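Model: You mentioned two targets. I'll fold them one after the other.
Researcher: Yes, keep them separate.
Model: Target one:
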Amino acid sequence: QARSDPAPSPRSALSARSPPVGRALRARGATMTLFEGFVEALRRRAGRPGADDAIAFVEEHRANVQKALGIFTRSGHLANGQPIPASCYNDFYKFTMLPCMKAVERSLAPRDVRCTFSVNIRDDEFRKRLYDSAVGKGAPDLFDELKNGLRALQERPFDRDVFERCSEEYDVPGWSADVLDAVCGKVGAPRMLVQEFQADAGCSQPAAPSTPGAVLVQVFVAPDEKLKEPRVYVEATGPWHRVTWLETTLMQAVYEPLLRDRKRSESGAAKTADGRWDDSSWYAEWLAECFCRCVRSSATVRETGLRGGLMTGRRTGGPAVLLLQALYGQAKLRDAAGALLLLGTSSVWARYKLLDLGVPGDSVPRCMGTHAHELQMVMGALFGEIDDQAGIPLTQVLAHLVYFYASLPKGDVKAAGRKALMPMLTDTLGSRAFLTAAASIRVPTGPHEGEPFLNVIGAARQDSGGLDYFKQVMAEFGFTGALMASEIETPNDLFTARDCGYTLFGAGGFMGDSEKVWDTTQRNISMAVKVCRVYLGGELLERMPVKTGETSDQGQIKEGKFEADGTLSPERMASVRARAQVLATAEKKLDSASMQELVNQRLTQIMEVGM
C-alpha cells in the first residue's frame, strides 16, 4: 500500500476501525470535531514512526483526550468565542520570579521600574517575510494577522483564580491580595494583559504608554543596528510586574501567525467567503503530526533515563498542543519500573485547565520551572554600578540571592529535597563570568550564613554553548550539584547530555513543535524575546540590559548570540557591546571582601525595604 494509506496496525483497535466509519467521519466535513479530525489524521499515519504509539495512547486515554480537545474548534482556537486567558502562554518561572520583581520595585519606590521586551526573529527568511508584508513588498495578510493578534491582547483577561491556585499550591511567597490586585486586577474586575496598542505606520521609534501603570504593545518598522537592516519591531512596555507577563506571550503572538502562514501555503488553504482563513483544512493533520513527534521524542527520553520538564508555552501551534503534551508526558514519560521521569510542565494554564475539565489529578503533571535571564538583565541595568566597580557581573549573583530569599527557597535549603528549589542560570554573560562572581560571594544571612554561594544551588541549567564545555566549567569552579541540559534540539543532544553526566533536562520544541527534530530538511521558526530597555522613574537607564550566551574559549562574545536594543545608534551599540565584553571577560577589580560588601548593601536594600 502507498505510504499515505498504510495498512492498519494490529497494535490498536482505534487504528483498525472499519473503513465505513472512517468514510462517514470524513463525509461529515465541517461538522467533524477537532478530536475526530485528530483521530482520523492519526489513523492515516498508522505504521509511520510514532503513530502507532500515539494511536494506542489516544485509545487508552480517550476520555481525557476528548476533554482536552473538546474545548477547541477544528482550527485550533478556543470554541464559543472564549478569550485566551493571561496565564495561557506564561511559564511557572514567571510566578516564582514575581516576588523578586516586587521586592526590587518596592525597594526603589517611589521611582517606578518600567521595562520593554522586544521580539527578535532570528530566522532571516521569516523576518524578511514579515518585513515585506509590513512595507508593501509582499501580501499584507501576514502583517495584518500579526497586528490583529497583538491588538486582541487588549481583550485577554487575567484569570486571577489560576494565579491564586498556583501560588497557593506551590507555596510561592509574596502573592498577597495586594499583589494579586496589582497584577490581575481586583476580584470580579480583571485587568487585561494590554491596555494600549499602537501600530502607526508613521512611527519608527519606541513609544511609552500614555497612561501611568498601563502596558503598551507597539509595532513599528525601523533599522536594526545589530542586523544592519530594517525590520519589524514588536515590543511591550510597562511596569515590570505587569509587562513581564507579555514576554512569552509576545513570542507566541508572533510565532503563531508565522506558523499558520506557512501551513496555509503548504496545504493550499483558502479564505472563506467573509475573507477569513479556514485553518480547519490542515490543523488536525498538523496536530497529529506534532503529536507523533512528541511520542518519538518521549521515547528518546525514556531511552536515556533522564528526568526533566516540559518547557512549553511559547513557539507552539496553540493551546491544544500544551494539553496533549501534558497528558502524554504524565502518562508515558516513565522508566521501565513505572517511575515518573517527568518533573512537570512549565505551563501553569495546562495544569489547571486539565483539572477543571475533570481530568484526574494523577493524569495531570505538576508545574515546574527554573528562572529566566530577565531577572539578571533587569537587575544588571538597575544596579549595574556594582558590576562596573568589581569588573565582573555581581548583579547576576545578586539576582540569584534575591530569588533565594524572596521566592521558593525562602533562604533555607537545608532540609532534604529543598535544594531542588534553587536553580542557577549562568549564561547571561557567559558561565565563566557568572561563576567568577559566584565563587567570590558567600550567603550573607540566615541558616546558610557564611557558606559559599554555590553551596545552596541545587542544579545548574545549561542554556547555550556545548554540553561538555558547560560541565567542565562547572567542575573547574567546584560546583557539584545536578546539571540540567535545556538546549535540546536533537535526539543526540539527550544522549550527549546523559553521557556527559547530566541527570536533568528541559525541553520545549523538541517535544513536538519542532519539525526539524525528526526531519533535518525542515526549518524551525527561531525567535527570542528579551528585555531591551529599563527605565527608573521614567528615565531610560544608561546601563542597557544585554545577553551574550556562552562566550568563546577566549572569552569573546559570539556575535550571533548577542542580544541588545536594535534601535541604538552605532556609537551607543558599540559602547554597550564593549561594556558587555568587559563583564564577560570578568577580570576582578576588587578583593572578595569588597565585592561581598557591595552585594550585601544592595541585597539589604532590596530585602529590608522591598519585602
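Model: Target two:
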Amino acid sequence: RDTEAPPEANKDADVAGGQLIRVAAMLGPKGRADEDTEEELLEASREFAGRPLSVRFARAGDVAALELLADHPLVSAACGDAAKMAMSKGRRLLVAISLFDGEYVELNRLREPKLGSGGIFIPATKVDATAGGLVFSKDTVSETGAMEVLPRVACRGLDTYDGLSVEQWVLRAALPPVGRFCPSTSTLYEKTGKYFMMLFVDPTRPELPSWLRLLHEAHKRYNKGISSLGASGGGFGAGASGGDIEDPLKLIFVYIDARQHIHRMTSLGLAPDPRRLPALCFNSMTQQVLAWQPEREEYVNGSAVLSAETIDSMVSQFFRGSGKAVTDKPAPLVQPVPRRNVAAGERRNVPELDSLTLQERLRFVQAINADIYNEVVQDSSKDVAVFFFASAEGPQAEASSKAAIFINRCAERFSELEAETVRIVRLDTSEASLPPGVQIPEVPSLLLFPAFSKEPPYKVFRGKWKVQHIMWWIQDQASRPLKLPELPHLDELEASAYWEQKAALPPERQQRIAVENEGMHRPRPSKSPQRQRKGKQRKGEAEL
C-alpha cells in the first residue's frame, strides 16, 4: 500500500483483465538492499510495467508495513518464520500475491468469510465439491459472499540462489498451476520459455472444472518439487534454470477458449471443429505436432473421454519426441478480375450473394498459406494487406463470410485501378497455419504489412467493413504513395449513378453520404505514413 497516494490509488476493484499480481520487497527496517539487488528489482518492475495486467511492485521498509505483511496469515503460511525474520533480523524477502481470472482454484483455497478480512468473495453455488475445485471468475466476485477465495502467495529470500532472476521468479510465482491462455496472459506464459500442454475447450461446458482438475493433478505429477520451493496454493513457486540446479518446472498446463481462438487449432495439429472438444495439444516449437482429438462420432457416442491416462500418454509421447509433421493444404487458385469496356457501358457482373460459398466470395483475392507467406507478404516492393479468416463452421466463419465481400471488391477495385504497389491476399486459418510470430486479435482480421515496415507491431484494420473505408485505410498506412479516386469503390459508370442519385437528395442527407463515400469529405487520421513523409520533405526543403 502506497501510504502517500490518494485512497483510490490503492483500490483493486479495477484490476485490468481480471488478473492480480502484487509483489512486495521486504527489505528490513533499513528499507534498503545492495546495489545489484536494487537494480534487479527495478528491472523486474520496469519489465512488467504497462502490460495488460494489474502488476504492482511495492517496497516494505518501514516497521509498520513489515509488521502488517509478516503477520498476515497467507504470508506467514507461505514464508514461515522468514517473514518475521525480515522484520526482526533484517532478512530481505520477496513476497508475491496473485490471483488470475479463469484460473483453477482447489478447494483448500476456499474458506468461510471472516469478519473484516477484506477478501475476495463468491457465491457458494459456484463451488462444486465433486470437481475438486472451481474456475475463478471475476464476474462472480461481490462484496459479500458465502465463500472467500484465497490468492496464491509465494515467498523467496533475495539472497537465495536458485538460478532465476527476480523477473523470472515473479513470473513463475504469479502464473497459476492451471490457467487460461488468452491475450492478456499469453505473453507471460511465453516468457517462461517452457512447453505448454494446451486444452482447447468450450468454457461454458459444465465439465470444465473436472477437466482442469485433471490438468492440475498432472501439474503436481510432472512439476514435482515446486510447491516446496515457497509457493502457497500450488503456484509455480521459485524453481531454477541453468547452472547445476535442476529446474523442477518441466511443463506448463493451460486451457484456451476454442470458441474465441479456433484459428489457432490448425497450426497445432487440431481440426478447427467446435464439435470435437475438448482437445489436447502442445505448443509447437518444431515442425512436429502431437494432439489428442478423437473423431466426431466418438464425441457423439460418449467414448471421447479426457482422462488422466490420456494426459499421461500424451506427455510421455511428447518427451519421447513423438509427433507428426503438419503440412498446409495447397492454397486455392484465384480468379482473374474480368476486364470490362467501361467506356462502352459494360457494367460489372454481380452474382447473387446467397448463392456464393465463402471461397467464391473471395474469388479475386489471392490465397496463401505458410509455405508461400514470406514470398508474398514479405515482398518489400508491395504494401500487402492480409485477410485472416475462418472457413470452418461457427461464428467466426459467419463473420468472415460477411466481411469477405468487401475484401473481394477491394481486390477487384485495386486491380481495375492498376494499383501495382498494393496487394490483397487471404489466409484461411481453418486450413493453413499462422506464420511464426504473427498474432491476430480475432477472426476475421485484416492486417497491413507496409512495403518498408514488415516487422511488428502490425497495423490492424479497426474501421467499418466497407470497401471505401478499407481502401482509404490502406492508402493512409501504406509505405508507397497511393492515389485513389474520389469514389475509390466505384467505377466510372457506378460513380456517375452515385452523383445523380446524390443530387436528388436533401442537403443534410447529401452531407452525410459525402462523409461516408467521398474522399474529400472523409475523416482523416492525424498522421499517416504518407503525410509524415510529405511533412519531412517540406521541412527538408525549408532548411535547404
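Researcher: Noted. Anything on target two?
Model: The two ends are 56 Å apart (CA to CA).
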